[in-house]
Amino acid sequence: MLVNKKILLCVSGGIAVYKAVALVSKLTQAGAHVKVIMTESARQFVNPLSFQVMSKNDVFYDTFDEKDSHVIAHIDLADWADLVLVAPATANVIGKLANGIADDMVTTTLLATTAPVWIAPAMNVHMYDHPAVLRNIDRLYADGIRFIEPSAGYLACGYVGKGRLEEPEKITALVSKFFEPQNLPLKGKQVIVSAGPTLERIDPVRYLSNFSSGKMGYAMAEAARDLGAAVTLVHGPVALPDPSGMTVIAIESAEQMLEAILSRYDAADYVIKAAAVADYRPKQAAQQKVKKQQGDTQMELERTPDILATLGAQKTHQLLIGFAAETNDVETYALDKLTRKNADYIIANDVSKTDRGFGADQNTVTLYGHDFVQHFPSTSKRALATQLLETIIAQSGVAK
Ligand code: CTP
């Protein structure tokens, strides 16, 4: 699959640079053309000559050292690549790319390329767990960049944990798989994802809502997009930028969310209901600002439509995936929602913990199907979203 594929390998400075030499060897053995760019720090670990010998190409590391006067090297390399691989990727290079910083040959090329970019991080376990690094990784996921997660094991710094650059053989296998056409299991599929809270107006200046950040729903939408689906994201009020490469519909209330989804439901193959829909709304939204009165007051609330249950009742061929955010008896409530709402899967998370669930960047969930259950340990919401979708696809087969 790699014959004549053009892989641009960006190498940043960590002890795992030595493994990147083996990676070039594996990629070229598989038939790829490989060109290498190194950061200054990477050159502290391995001499560029090693990469030159392995790739049989010049190695680049200085933005201002233009080897060919006919082209600008970083633009030329950026345009040349079918795939750009950053391996090993340090916390520094991840941070720079997440923030659009281009101050060396690697980062200028990364901003200049329109080819898919894959990042294989390698760093100390605590660095990898740092909220700033997780934030940057999530940002890059949102930008459409894919990650080859580090494996766990003995780290050069003496720690045992997650942070080891994935083995060159595994990276080569993943890259090969990427170039196989069947690698996009959701290609040709329509996926609707709902995300964020809904907002139910009390009067022109007040509303009922909840603390949903929308992060998990956005992560699901991005994961579906990257697996090849045509995605429609229907979201309530959130503070997240629109993800690229999908149709994005902003709504406010549960009623509007229901309408937006129902009008697209027939054509949908998958519906992922990650939204935290308000269960009640004021019976009468006031047209003018409600003035305060002496003493206490009461507000009459009515039920909003249960969107997932409505979709469940009208289901023909669609695969319905709901969420259950619970603070207690997670399994009992999740299984109850699975049958009561006629869903195919429920993704349950315990929102009583502050470091996961609502607003957090990490999440721990359990996936419940009919006769199926799988727990997913704590990981970034974006990585988790891909794992969940891949599991659901493997379990159910791609929706016909
Ligand atoms: N849901 C929905 N419409 C609603 C309420 C919930 O579509 N009016 C969906 C959510 O998007 C989620 C699933 O139903 O996928 C479960 O949501 P949750 O709020 O946990 O469940 P509820 O049905 O509201 O049950 P309860 O309040 O008893 O937990």
UniProtKB/TrEMBL annotation:
Identify the metabolic or biological route this protein is part of. Answer: Cofactor biosynthesis; coenzyme A biosynthesis; CoA from (R)-pantothenate: step 3/5; Cofactor biosynthesis; coenzyme A biosynthesis; CoA from (R)-pantothenate: step 2/5
Q: Which cofactor does it need?
A: FMN; Mg(2+)
Q: Where is the DNA/pantothenate metabolism flavoprotein C-terminal domain?
A: 186-393
The answer on whether this UniProt entry bears the keyword Hydrolase reads: no
Query: Which GO BP terms apply?
Result: coenzyme A biosynthetic process; pantothenate catabolic process
The record's section on HAMAP family has: CoaBC (MF_02225)
Q: Region Phosphopantothenoylcysteine decarboxylase: start and end of each range?
A: 1-190
| UniProt entry tagged with the keyword Protein biosynthesis | no
Q: Where are the transmembrane segments?
A: none
Please list where the region (Phosphopantothenate--cysteine ligase) is annotated: 191-400
The catalytic activity of this protein is classed by the Enzyme Commission as 4.1.1.36, 6.3.2.5
| GO MF terms held by the record | FMN binding; metal ion binding; phosphopantothenate--cysteine ligase activity; phosphopantothenoylcysteine decarboxylase activity
The Flavoprotein domain is annotated at: 5-175
Q: Which GO terms describe its cellular component?
A: phosphopantothenoylcysteine decarboxylase complex
Keywords recorded for this protein, A-Z: Decarboxylase, Flavoprotein, FMN, Ligase, Lyase, Magnesium, Metal-binding, Multifunctional enzyme
| Residues annotated as the enzyme's active site | 157 (proton donor)
Binding positions for CTP?
Answer: 279, 289, 305-308, 323, 337, 341
Q: What protein name is recorded for this chain?
A: Coenzyme A biosynthesis bifunctional protein CoaBC
Q: Which InterPro entries match?
A: CoaB-like_sf, CoaBC, DNA/pantothenate-metab_flavo_C, Flavin_trans-like, Flavoprotein
Q: What role is this protein assigned? A: Catalyzes two sequential steps in the biosynthesis of coenzyme A. In the first step cysteine is conjugated to 4'-phosphopantothenate to form 4-phosphopantothenoylcysteine. In the second step the latter compound is decarboxylated to form 4'-phosphopantotheine. Catalyzes two steps in the biosynthesis of coenzyme A. In the first step cysteine is conjugated to 4'-phosphopantothenate to form 4-phosphopantothenoylcysteine, in the latter compound is decarboxylated to form 4'-phosphopantotheine.
Q: Could you give the cofactor binding note from the entry?
A: Binds 1 FMN per subunit.
Q: Which family does it belong to?
A: In the N-terminal section; belongs to the HFCD (homo-oligomeric flavin containing Cys decarboxylase) superfamily.
